[in-house]
Known about the structure:
The complex is a heterodimer. By secondary structure, chain A is mainly alpha-helical. Helices cover about 70% and strands about 0% of the residues of chain A. Chain A has helices at about 30-60, 60-75, 80, 120-155, 155-170, 175-185, 190-215, 220-225, 230-270, 280-285, 295-325. In chain A, helix 5 (about 155-170) packs antiparallel against helix 7 (about 190-215) and helix 10 runs antiparallel to helix 11 (about 295-325). Chain A starts with about 30 loop residues before the first helix and ends in a 5-residue tail after the last helix. In chain A, about 50% of the residues are buried. By secondary structure, chain B is an all-alpha fold. Chain B has 14 helices and no strands. Chain B has helices at about 1-30, 35-40, 45-55, 60-75, 85-120, 125-140, 145-160, 175-200, 205-210, 215-245, 250, 260-270, 275-300, 305. In chain B, helix 5 runs antiparallel to helix 6 (about 125-140) and helix 12 (about 260-270) runs antiparallel to helix 13 (about 275-300). Chains A and B meet through helix 5, helix 6, helix 9 and helix 11 of A and helix 1, helix 6, helix 7, helix 12 and helix 13 of B.
Amino acid sequence: MDLQAPGGPGIGSPAGGAVPPAPPALHPAAEADTAALDAVAGKAALGYWRRAWRRFRRDRFALAGAAIVLLLVIVAIFASRIAPYDPSYEDPNGLTMLGAPLPPSPGHWLGTDTNGRDTLSRIIYGAQVSLLVGLVGNGLAGLIGLIAGSLAGYFRGWVDTAISRIIDIFLAFPVYLLALALVAVLNPSVQTVIGIIVVAYWTTSARIIRGQVISLRERDFVEAARSLGQGELPILFRHIYPHILATLVVYITLSIASTVVFESGLTYLGVGVPHGTPSWGGTISDNQQALTTAPWLVFGPGAAIMLTVLGFNLLGDGLRDALDPYQE
Amino acid sequence: MLLYLTRRLLWMLLELVGISLVTFVLTYLVPADPARLYAGPHASIQTVQQMRHQLGLDQPLWLQYVDYLWRLLHLDLGISWEFHTPVLQAILNRLPATAELALGGVAFELLIGVPLGLLAALKPRGLIDRLGMGLTILGISTPPFVMSYLLIYLIWFKLGLFESGGYGDPLPLYLFLPALALGLSGAAFYARLLRTTMQDILRAEYVRVARAKGLGLHLVVLRHALPNAFNVLLTQLGLDIGFFLAGVLVVEVPFSWPGIGRQAWEAISNLDVPLILGTVLFGAVSILLANIVVDIAYALLDPRIRYN
């Protein structure tokens, strides 16, 4: 995945990315001018986002992705109203006379599982934990990546070397095996899964942000801010971060797709979301011995995972095309 | 080139030390007392103390780490709590199966991914491009363990082809489905990667020159574009081999494949921490080595890297 510098606010004009003109005054008193500068930048930013929205609206695949993601969020939030049954309710009539799961029927649209629980209800509730883990895990990993990546990219030198080497070390770990080790040492819980996701994913965001900051810090408008006497932190927050925002949003969207696969895999292996919580990976591992007799128990949650991943991937690709008009 | 090599190898050593530091810290987070585990449940306090001394657990932490590094240098990854054999031995016993699966997976990645990517790149927005890229999105969106069950159900159970299980039969029918499950998502990724790379290359000036001097499209692709695109593929391929050799749990488990990943997974239920951490370390080294091989191959193929 290579994310290039998006045309951030202020450089959004297609005519070669006109940077807001730096005031000619080099005197520290020129601080006052930054207000005017921001006004220009703010106005340009509005135009940038509006243009991005227009591009996004025309992209059918991106809209489909957004619809899928929206649907999932609604399903997760209103799971208790949408699901026909309580996910842990073991229907006394939920198994055949021989004790096998019920096939799909009007009473149970996706049949029942090996414990006589309604499969559809478990899949609906499973959306909650997948989205929660994906959002929180990626949010935290993105935050750590943002801090580490901007430190490395902005200050370069030994800071960069140290952080980059730490990233390399983390990237060398086989993540599923590392998760096994962590769970053997800690205990399986939602927090542990989030922790594993942070450990496995902060490196990618740190690398992307480092690359972005390196290219941005050499740009004229950062040079201008520096010569106006702005401190390092204000430069990062006011001049560099707004340009990274779009990249970060795109990256996190695509990364959620990848963490949904990762989390369901961990849960499938029994080292992810604990057993009591309804989850897609857990439903598959609980029922995989019924694969040939009750395939819906494996492919129902499997389809939910695929749909989620597809939704976030389409949305992420669409966002990238919309937010970064310069790429291709 | 020699300078580049030395620097790269030195960094690798440093990274190895970093990795060992992480696994060392992890052994310290284990809730169980290793001295008690080794001494057995009925051992007296004296015996446990003696065992603690024997294991060096009464030493200062840094000394224990140095000791740990020293043992790693002698390829001593500890003793498996479950098998009572050296961890390295347990891993090496299962490595052939993992390697077999890795090779099969890579073969499918290339056999499916390269032709699909090439055909899509040559006729952008053509039928193969649209259909193929749609399928690759599905391939990338399917987790390997779901893909495994999909193949077991559709191809083995419904069509009665190949085998699910039966590792070690004289005729390697058992390899087809696991290798396909492992290779499919990679193949989808390769197809997309090759498609974008080829499209970029076909727009490059040297391709235009070759076309301008009257060379046919197929010859240009074969002689000029493809060798350059393979550099990109090679990188990915090297990294994949490193990852696959670390043991792909999400394919080994659904197929009950006797590889190192599943062995580590089974070790969870016995809390065999030395075996799990040994496999982690083994996997990390395999990924690191794959990285360095790729870097060196890349530097050999592309002189621009060496002078950077």
